[in-house]
Amino acid sequence: MTIGDRLPLDVGAVAPGGHCVARTAEGQVVFVRHALPGERVLAEVTEEHRGFLRADVVEVVQPSSDRVVPPCPYAGRCGGCDFQHATPAAQRELKAAVVVEQLTRLASLSPAEVTALGVRVEELPGGPLGWRSRVRYTVDGAGRAGLLAHRSHEVVPVDRCLIAHPAVQAAPVTGVGWPDDDQVSVVASSVGDVAVTGDRSGLLGGPQTVRERAVGREWRIDAGTFWQVHPAAPDALARAVLDLLAPEPGERAWDLYGGAGLFAAALAGAGAEVTLVESDRAGAAAAEANLADLPGVRVVRSTVERFRPPYPPDVVVLDPPRAGAGAAVVRTLVGFSPRAVAYVACDPASFARDVKYFRAAGWRLAALRAFDAFPMTHHVECVGLLVSSAVEDV
Hints:
Strand order of the largest sheet: 6-20-21-19-18-15-16-17
Distance between the termini: 51 Å
Number of helices: 8
Radius of gyration: 22 Å
């Protein structure tokens, strides 16, 4: 098979990354984009690799009952959305299936263990469109702002992005020329601040520091500092962490990879004494400024690997970057014998690999919640509760 060939395919299960799996008549694996399980499609080969192909649907011969017409005219060209061709309920089922597959394959959980977790992806308020509060546009050679095509540096010029927050869509970015910047970012905060920033020009409009509202507090965050892109995600994730950890007043907590301090604030609000660890200078500064009124919170600017704890923790929030925490961090963490760890994960594969490291250390995944914090895309946010295998079921 070569790039451009068209293949009739019977589509199988969903795979990580927004694809579904199919096989050619000769048995070669094909990762098919814009397909749904159970469909019969005609797909065009887009990439050749040793052992597998990538392809994109050009015709749906037998559609799934979950298939819908994508609401966005750029769907299929822009690479930002993976599942606009599926109903929102079907999207959540696809994401749940990926979480289950990753826990089974990468974490080596048994089918019974996975079934006991009752994996489902919870819907967040606001619907599947108009939720993304932070968007980075790429500027093409003609100075037009757009979004990147899938697995490509090609810029797709757009007039608006339908999953973007209405205030992001209204920002004067698309349809105007950008001669000086390669990227333009727009932030629309939960309390109405809108900031537009060019990667070379700097702040172009709005405040440099935007206000957010979460866990009953107002936050002031530099427009370039990490914050959850779905407006409902901060509160939903913080509630899940508190529900799973059930911190008691006076308990000692670590918030690792703590960012601006969302989970530290939630833990402190429950009466815990918190040490937040964050390596990013801007993130640590935001945590220090936003949590200054909480005497029970200490901010340490350090990598997690080099963190020298002042005390062993009772509970831990582990919120690593997409690559995960890794075996060394997990081994060190369990060596301090906390009673529970809440692991916040934006990538099911990295999460599953780290769960396997916990299992090797005598721990288990006791509970799991998953949230559709990125509708129309393949991304899913998970919060898992990890405890020593000696602890009874929660």
